[in-house]
Amino acid sequence: MEGSHGVRPLAVSTSTADEIQKLVLQLHLDIDVLFQEIRWALGEERINRLTPTLDQFRTWSRERDGLNRFWEFANLQIGGELSSNEVRDIWDCIELTLVARKRKAFTFQDYLMIAIRSDQRCEFCDKRPPEVTLEIDHIVPVSRGGAESAPNLRFLCQHHNRSRGARFHWADIWRRAIQ
User: Fold this and answer.
1) pLDDT digits (tens, 9 = 90+) for 77-107
2) Are 151 and 144 spatial neighbours (Cβ–Cβ below 8 Å)?
3) Which helix (H) or strand (E) holds 171?
4) What span, in angstroms and rounded, lies between the C-alpha atoms of 103 and 121?
C-alpha cells in the first residue's frame, strides 16, 4: 500500500533488521545515534531537493513575499504541505548552504598532511595526477560548520569536488571512521 505522494511507507523486514543489528554490533555503534544520523541525512536530502538555483534564491530573498513564493515552490516540489516552521527551517538551511563564506588560505602544513594521508589520490575515484587535477575539499563544508583544519580536508579530483558542491554526505564520515 502506498502512502501520500506515491511513496511506500517504510517497512523493514526481520532479515533487514537483523542485518542492521549485525552492522551496529560490528561497528560498535550506538543504535540511537545511528538513527539520529539517518534522520539527519534524510532531512539533508529533503533540503537538497528543495534548494532552488542560487539566482532564484537571491531573487526571492530580495522580494517582500519571497518566503511565501519559496513555500509555494517547496510544496510543489514535494507534492504536499509544509508547515510554516518547516519552511522557515528549510529556508535558513538553504541560506547557509548558498550564501558564500570567506575561507582562510590553506597552509603548507595543511597541504602536506593531506598529501601524506591521501597518497595524493582522489578519495572517490582513486585517480592521481597527471590523469586528474586534485583539489582540496572540505569533508564537512565550512557552510555547515566544518573546520578549516587538516583533519577536515582531503583531495578530490576536480570532477568529484565540483560535482559535490556544499552538499554533505554522512557516508564520507562513516567511511573514514571504519578505515
Assistant:
1) 988 899 999 898 888 878 877 765 555 667 7
2) no
3) helix 170-178
4) 23
Domain boundaries, the chain: 14-98, 108-178
Put residue 84 in one of left, alpha, beta given phi > 0 → left and psi -120 to 50 → alpha.
alpha
Cell numbers given for 65:
513575499
Q: How distant, in Å, are the alpha carbons of 85, 110, 115, 126, 159 from that of 150?
A: 37, 5, 10, 19, 21
133 closest CA partner among 117, 122, 144: 122
Question: Could you read off the pLDDT of 19-53 as tens digits, one per residue?
Answer: 888 888 887 777 776 777 677 777 777 877 888 88
The domain defined by 108-178 folds into: DNA Binding (I), subunit A (1.10.30)
CA distance 119 to 141: 22
Closest CA to 144 of 53, 54, 44: 44
Which amino acid is located at 20 in the chain?
A: I
Res 177: pLDDT: 52
Contacts of 166 (CB under 8 A, 6+ apart): 97, 98, 141, 143, 144
pTM: 0.44
